[in-house]
Structure formats: C-alpha cells, structure tokens
Amino acid sequence: MTQRSAPQEQSYLAALESFEQNSYANDPSWAHDLRKAAMIRFQSLGFPTARRGNEEWKYTDVGPIAKTTFQSLDATVLPRVDAADVKGASVGEAGWSQLVFVNGSYARELSSVSSLPAGVMAVNLAEAMRSTPDLIQEHLAQYADYEINAFTALNTAFIHEGAFVHIPDDVLVEEPIRLLFLSTSQDEESVSHSRVLIVVGKNSKATIIDGYGGISDGRYFSNAVTEIVVGAGSRVEYYKVQQQSDRAFHITTTDVVLGRDSYFSSINIDLGGKLVRNNLNVLTQDEGSSCMLNGLYLVNGTQHVDNQIIIDHAKPYTSSRELYKGILDGKSRSVFHGSIIVREGAVKVNANQVDKNLLLSDQAEADTKPAFWIYCDDVKCGHGAACGQMDENALFYLRSRGIDEKTARGLLTRAFVGEVIQSISNEPLRGQIDGLVQAKLQEWLGS
Amino acid sequence: MLEVRDLHVSIGDVEILKGVNLLVKPSEVHAIMGPNGSGKSTLANVLAGHPSYVVTSGEVLLEEENILAMLPENRARAGLFLCFQHPTEVPGVRLDHFMRAGFNSIQRSKGLEEMDVLKFDRFLNEKVGIVEMDRNLTKRSVNEGFSGGEKKRNEILQMAVFEPKLAVLDEPDSGLDVDALRIVAQGINQLKRPDNAVILITHYQRILDYVVPDKVHVIIDGRIVKSGDKNLALEIEDKGYDDFENSRKSL
C-alpha cells in the first residue's frame, strides 16, 4: 500500500529536480544516483509521527516540520553574511581553521584553512567528490543509514556541498578544525541540509568543532548529518555547539564508527533551537575502542530538546561513558533516550550512562529513558538518572553560611553544569563554552 | 548573647519543641543533652532558620534582636553559626570558593573589606591547622567524598573561618573515633573567646571531657527537664536518660 505523500514532501522533490539541472549538474553520476535513491526512500518513509508504538519519536512531535513548506535554497543565492556574523557565531580561537557554510552551501570567502599538517584535508564536500572520488565513495552515506531514518534520507537526497575532513594515518593534528553551519531566514522559512564527513586514518589525532547557528532569529529548518570514521589507534575529540535561533528546528544525525583501540569523545552543547533532536549512533566496530559521550542542554520557554543515543558494543573490550545534563526552565521539555547494545560475544564491555536534569520551574518536564540490550554475560553496564528541583538541603547549607538565596541558587546551578564543562579538554574552548553557558544562566537567574 | 523564650516548633502537625527556654551568656559553653528524638537537632536547625520547621510560638533573641523573622543568611551575618550534624555534600562547588563566598557576603553585610583569592588563601592556611585538616581537601567539592571525620572537621574549620558570636554545634562528636574527637574538641576550645558562646548538642558525655561546659541541660520530649553544671553530664553518663524519661512520664 502506498500513500500519496503530502505537498510539503513533494516540494522537496521539486527542489531536488531543479537543483539537479543547475548547481548539482556537474557532480559525478554516483552522486546523482545516491540522491535519487535517497529521495525515493524519503518519499516512501515520510516524516515520522508520534503514533503509538513508534518509541523513537514518542516524545518528540515533528509535525511542525512536516507541515511547513520550507524553501530549499540553491547555492547560487547566497545571502549576505559577513565576517562579523561568522565571528559572532563561531567558537574557538580566531586562528584555528574554519570552514563556513551558509544554508548548507560552502562560503569560501568566509572560510579560512590554515597551517594544517601535510596530507590533512578540510574541504568542501562537492569539490572532494571530484578531486578524491574514491575516498568519498568509500565512506559517504555508508554509516548514516538513509533506509531507516527519514531525516537522513532527506539530507542524503540533497548531498552536494558540505564539509569533508580527512586525516591520513599517523598525523597528530593539534589545532582544532572548525566547521560552522549558519542558517539565514529572513522572509521565507528555509531549509538546509548540512553534511559532514570526517575520516581519520590509523594512529592519528584530531579535534573537530561543529558549530550551528542562525544569523536571523527566524524560523528555519536545519537538517544535519555527520559521519565520522575513527581509524585504529586514533583519537578524535568532537564538539557540537548548537546556538540556533529560538524559533529554529534543528535535527541532527551523527553516526560514528570506531576502529580497534580508538577513542572518540563527543560533547554536545545545546543552547538554542525551538525543536531540537540529536541522534547520536556510535558503533564500536573493533576491539578495545572506547567513547565518552557527554552533553549539556539549557532550555526554557517552550523549547524542546531530544537526545537519542545508541551505542552498539559490537566487539569485546569496548567501553562507553555517557553523561548528559540538562537545565530546564519555563515550560520546556527534554527527552533523553539512551540505548546500549552489547552484542553476543562482546565480553568485558564496560558501559555507563548518566542523565541528570535540574528543573527550575514546575512546568518544565524531563523524560529519561535508558534501554539496555545485552546479549553477553560478561559485561559491566550501569546507568543513573536524576530529575528534580534544586537540593533544598544544599541550598540551606549555603545560606547558613551567609550566602543569599539568589546567589546560592546560582552557585548550585552552575555547579550542576560544571561536570560537563570540565570534561571539555580543550582549554580555550572550555572557557568559551563556560562563558556562553554562564551568560545564559545569568539571563535566567538574574544573578 | 542568646535568649530562647517558650519556643514551640512543629513539623507538619507534629509538635517537636514544646516550650524551650534557654539563656546563654557571652563566654559560656552550654551542653544540651538528650536521647534520640528529644528535639535536640530541631532546636539547632530552628536557630539557624531551616525552612522545614514552623515556629508556632516563642522568641529567639540573639543579642537582644529577635532572629526568628530573619532569613538563614541574615542570621549567619548576625553572627550565628550552625555546625551541621550531617553536613550536606555540594558537588561541583569547591570548598574554599564556598567559604570565601560566605565569608565575603558576611563582610559585605557589615561594610567590612572583602578578601581576594590570594588573601583568603593565606587566611585559610592559618585556619586549617586548628583542625589538622589537609589543605588539599579545601580544593575539593564541599563535603563530597569526605569521611565522617573529615566532614566534622570541615564544620569546625568553617567555625574558625566565620568566627561566629554564637556557634550551635549539632552533635559534632557523632561518628568520630577517639583521635578525631580530640581534634574536633581541641578546635572548639581554641575558638572559645570571652565575647562568644557555644551551644553544644550531644547525646554522649565523652566530648565534655574535652570541652568543659558551664551549663548542662537535659532535653526530653521537646522540653528542657533539668539544668545543672558539668556534673549533670556525668550523672547521665552513669544512669542514662531513663530516669529523666520516667520522671517525666510519672508527672
């Protein structure tokens, strides 16, 4: 039984057909084929609904996205974004390399790629499709499965420009590489499909900072897909800093594959957005690999943030640590859904998951749902969840030492987020993110 | 220094303190002794302003000023200090930062000079000696992962930092081995001055071997049933609380 897709979904097809004739025309034929297959899949999947039995989308209603006809912007119509906009939205040190994308299209004049070690590439994906087609074809759309996820299918249907970072074997890249995706939406509600592919060879090291922000305070839809391959013995630190407009829809899917004895860390900071959904899937594909997945979300008003994390422990001696913390005010809502899979034979897996929420208002709501699928006996898995108002005993303890209530509440709130911020190993970045978080808390708490 | 007049306190519908009277003068050490559930800790928490307790009647005057209407932070600024029986863990807040924040807010309220990090650091270096505390402990989160003895020593350290007019010590001896007890007691003795006073709440007499009280009060079922000198504590050590409880029941 097939269902005729909605006019909003049809508009994506029309946009793709138009792009194929114009800006996409010079792409290699496999790219055309990939986009076509993904679009067909998207049309058949449709946007997910919060219907009964659809656990994955139970708490997050993407109806507003499905019901809006977003304008797909062609790369040829670049809006006016200047260096000051970029500076305001980016994090990290000014000297660090940065690829800038506006509505999903590469903005060369706003980007700066400097002093990367020999062999390291940080380029526009559309260029890499032509210059290093074998490498791209080997990895692109191989990890983020568009067969099962409509948002990934939609993103893949518009695969063209984006970021490609390649670190060859045995290269230590000490300086972080930054990617910045900016959305603009003045008159019409627009959509952008940011795409990132990061391929790290063996025994190498890299730090990637993925930034998302809006130039206007408009209503727009940012649909991002990131694929990360970490080679044997390598170490990748990945940061995602989301500062979208408070009216924006922000959907991301990040798929990570870990090689033998590799280490991957992800620190996800959500500070903006109206409706935010982060899918993070990590596959420990080979023995001895480990990951640390941390996150922090600050939401108020009617903001909604949903983190869905799946760690697939496919091999023995792999480990994972998850620590997500949220502060919720107003009528905001958060969802944390962490799944840990331990495959048959994956002995000595060590997995730990923690999600803690601090509710500053009676009307805010946090849902935490851990799920463990363990098919092996010899493992160590644990989880913890907490959700509640501020600890009244701690508050009294502080006040009994002369600290006024407002200051005490501020201290405890900051202490709550401190644990995640301290896990940011890059010092300048840690300072900056701390500053962003403190500024936001100051705005809320007034102290 | 402190005058408590006919203090009645409830939690929910249950009356815990049923008319407590107490007069503490400068330089005095008062021991308040009583069995579990007699209202000892309630008295301590009410004096410090814990929001869970409701004062239904009575007065508490600290240097002639009624403190019952004051917020907990203002009581601290007025010179009252509670040494907690079960000090709260505050993850993510460094002990030295916390103490400086409290210290400076009290200084500020009095119009006195605040201490910067370096100055407070030196100040703290002098104070840790009083309770033989490892200075590194002050760089950790407040009470997080502290042993029972370390928590108690930390409370006395804070007493040394805040130099209160009136210190209310709620079972500073509970959970302490003989060495830790001696250190805590010596700390309390070092902080005694002619112009301050101590209320020491305890279940057992043993700490009173080190901290000699001027007055001893026995609290049973929310009322002070007997007051006396240090010999009263020895009597309790000898006979327990049963006699007091029985004499109350027979009334």
Structural notes for this entry:
The complex is a heterodimer of chains A (about 450) and B (about 250). Chain A contains ten helices and 21 strands. Chain A starts with 6 loop residues before the first helix and ends with a helix. In chain A, α2 (about 30-45) packs antiparallel against α7 (about 150-155) and α5 packs across α6. In chain A, β2 (about 100) and β3 (about 105) form a beta hairpin. Chain A has helices at about 5-20, 30-45, 65, 85-90, 125-130, 135-140, 150-155, 390-400, 405-420, 425-445, and strands at about 70, 100, 105, 120-125, 165, 175-185, 190, 195-200, 205-215, 220-230, 235-245, 250-260, 265-270, 275-285, 290-300, 305-315, 320-330, 335-340, 350-360, 365-375, 380-390. Chain A is an alpha/beta fold. By secondary structure, chain B is an alpha/beta fold. Chain B is built from eight helices and twelve strands. In chain B, α6 (about 180-190) links the parallel β9 and β10 (about 195-200). The two termini of chain B are about 35 Å apart.
Characteristic terms for this protein:
A: 447 residues; 11-stranded mixed β-sheet; 10-stranded mixed β-sheet; 25% helix; 36% strand; globular; B: 251 residues; alpha/beta; 4-stranded antiparallel β-sheet
Concise synopsis of the structure shown:
The complex is a heterodimer of chains A (447) and B (251). In chain A, 25% of the residues lie in helices and 36% in strands. Chain A contains 10 helices and 21 strands.
